[in-house]
């Protein structure tokens, strides 16, 4: 899947040039990077077959990139399924208006098995699966309320059989996605996935920015 994903993204970069090709924060070229940044980029290249533009921006701080990759990788071995992680990413990205993450997670969400209806629903924090629906609504409330959720909010999540481990990981995924959303919004990262814009009623392409550490369930 990784070589196919890399080829898809590279073709998209060539065939869909952006109208504004300049980031507001410098995008590091992995080929000319050195030291810790080069080591981290090489690891991403081996894992994915390419280095997404988000990571080229975060790579301005090797410490930030290493922290992002480590947390993303660790959560990839957590209790939440790949599909649910992608749904959470779409919920948070829609709230934060992050076109880059909506585009990336729409693609990777499709590859995790989500159909177009599920991708659209995730952006609205809804799912036909009762437990997933509760997880997405909890993620939305955490994002909107900056973590200050009510006792009732937490009880609704637990009533849907979300465990404490799942609730903690939902919080971590919200935090991780807020980080990538905010970096992209500040940098105006050039989108290197089939573009999906915040507020659109339907994803443009099926198939997800926290792309490291994916687990297939």
Can you walk through the features of this model?
The chain has 217 residues and is mainly alpha-helical. The chain folds into two domains: 2-75, no CATH class; 82-187, Up-down Bundle (AhpD-like), CATH 1.20.1290.10. Helix content is 61%, strand content 0%. It is built from ten helices and no strands. It has helices at residues 2-15, 35-48, 53-58, 62-75, 82-96, 99-111, 116-123, 130-145, 151-159, 164-187. The longest helix is centred in the last third of the chain and has 24 residues, at 164-187. Mean pLDDT is 88; it is low at 16-20, 203-208 and 213-217.
Outline of the structure:
With 217 residues, the protein is mainly α. It is 61% helix and 0% strand.
Descriptors:
single chain, mainly alpha, 2 domains, 10 helices
What is the fold-level CATH name, i.e. the topology of the largest domain?
AhpD-like
| CATH first level of the largest domain | Mainly Alpha
CATH architecture grouping of the largest domain: Up-down Bundle
Relative strand content: under 5%
Distance between the termini: 15 Å
How many DSSP H or I helices?
A: 10
Mean pLDDT: 88
Measured on Cα atoms, how large is the radius of gyration?
17 Å
Q: What is the count of distinct domains?
A: 2
Question: Which structural class best describes the helix and strand composition?
Answer: mainly alpha
Which blocks of ≥5 consecutive residues have pLDDT under 50?
16-20, 203-208, 213-217
CATH H-tier superfamily of the largest domain: AhpD-like
**Beta strand count:** 0
Largest sheet: none
Shape: globular
Which series of helices and strands comes N to C? HHHHHHHHHH
């Amino acid at each position: 899947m990784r070589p196919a994903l890399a080829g898809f993204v590279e073709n998209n970069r060539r065939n869909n040039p952006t109208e504004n090709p300049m980031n507001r924060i410098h995008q590091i070229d992995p080929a000319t990077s050195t030291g810790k940044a080069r080591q981290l980029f090489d690891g991403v290249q081996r894992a994915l077959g390419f280095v997404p533009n988000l990571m080229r921006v975060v790579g301005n701080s090797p410490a930030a990139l290493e922290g992002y990759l480590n947390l993303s990788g660790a959560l990839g071995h957590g209790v939440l399924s790949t599909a649910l992680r992608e749904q959470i990413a779409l919920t948070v990205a829609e709230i934060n208006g992050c076109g880059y993450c909506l585009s990336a997670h729409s693609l990777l969400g499709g590859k995790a098995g989500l159909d177009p209806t599920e991708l659209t629903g995730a952006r609205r924090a809804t799912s036909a699966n009762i437990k997933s629906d509760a997880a997405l609504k909890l993620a939305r409330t955490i994002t909107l309320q900056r973590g200050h959720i009510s006792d009732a909010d937490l009880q609704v999540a637990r009533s849907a059989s979300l465990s404490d481990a799942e609730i903690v990981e939902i919080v971590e995924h919200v935090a991780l996605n807020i980080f990538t959303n905010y970096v992209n919004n500040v940098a105006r990262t050039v989108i290197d996935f089939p573009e999906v814009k915040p507020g659109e009623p339907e994803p443009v392409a099926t198939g997800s920015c926290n792309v490291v550490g994916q687990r297939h369930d």
